[in-house]
Design goal:
The protein is α/β, with parallel strands linked by helices and about 270 residues long. The chain contains seven helices and eleven strands. Strands 2-3-4-5 form a four-stranded antiparallel β-sheet, with no helix packed on it. The longest helix is centred in the middle third of the chain and has 18 residues, at about 115-130. This is DUF3097 domain-containing protein.
Length: about 270
């Protein structure tokens, strides 16, 4: 018969137990050996794939005590039953599994430009489909009076509008005041362009550059950051860094949520 020796390791030298955490998609952890920090994007038998804020992927083994979660050592384990979906939408709302898109409402939300529309879709798209709210975009705020007149907002067809750089004393503020009514709500954020509503840390920069007056703002940003002066490609890079409402500034979050509430309020 095989003889087993007792474990004579002093208690203070034994490693303390650490919690096991499911490697669910979106969980942000750090691999201490390399310092690589990223969100879980995949978990196969024995390995986990992380993506950092720059979009770089790394694969690591699922070893005991192999990761840090909020500074604490944990053991990542594969989710018990296949892929696990988040219980929240990108906007932070409770997800409704299997929910079908509602037939579009008569009410609408207009935003100022294609980039604004793409950002709203990225974060609030699931919510908007469930509520049946369609988002369209203006070519410029100067078009807003004609759009409102043609839309003819009323109790059963409310109109919400999101405007860039809506601060007192500007052309944008005067136009907004002229078209606002009981059934048309115009809100805005203070940023020159919706690019600035994305947190710099999410994009991997210390801050959004200050661009001198008279220069095209987007081109000036690309130049200051050393990016190719291709604003379309720059925007796709910025948008790819947005995964949820946590990547956006509160000045934008609150305004979009308020507009959604406005156009979906009971008649």
């Amino acid at each position: 018969m095989r003889q087993y020796s007792p474990d004579l390791t002093p208690p203070w030298k034994k490693p303390k137990p650490v919690p096991e955490v499911h490697a669910d998609p979106g969980l942000v952890v750090e691999e201490p050996g390399t310092g690589f920090c990223g969100a879980v994007i995949g978990c196969e038998a024995g390995t986990v794939t992380l993506e950092d804020r720059f979009g770089k992927h790394r694969v690591f083994p699922l070893e005991p005590r192999g990761f840090l979660l909020e500074g604490r050592v944990v053991t990542l384990v594969r989710p018990a039953a296949g892929p696990v979906r988040s219980g929240r939408t990108a906007s932070g709302s409770v997800a409704v599994p299997g929910a079908r898109a509602r037939v579009a409402r008569a009410g609408r939300i207009y935003v100022e430009g294609r980039h604004d529309a793409e950002l709203v879709e990225r974060v609030w798209g699931d919510d908007l489909r469930i509520e049946g709210v369609v988002v369209e975009y203006l070519e410029g705020v100067d078009d807003l009076p004609a759009v409102v007149e043609e839309f003819a907002p009323g109790p059963d067809a409310r109109l919400g509008v999101l405007v860039d750089h809506l601060v007192p004393g500007t052309k944008e503020s005067r136009i907004a005041a002229a078209v606002t009514s009981d059934h048309a709500l115009v809100l805005g954020h203070p940023y020159i362009d919706v690019w600035e509503a994305v947190k710099p840390s999410s994009v991997g920069i210390p801050a959004w550059p200050r661009v001198p007056r008279g220069q095209d703002w987007k081109t000036g940003v690309c130049r200051a950051l050393g990016w190719p002066e291709n604003t379309g490609a720059a925007w796709q890079h910025i948008l790819s860094r947005v995964r949820s409402y946590k990547d956006l500034e509160p000045e934008l979050l609150g305004r979009v949520e308020e507009l959604i509430d406005f156009v979906t309020a009971p008649e």
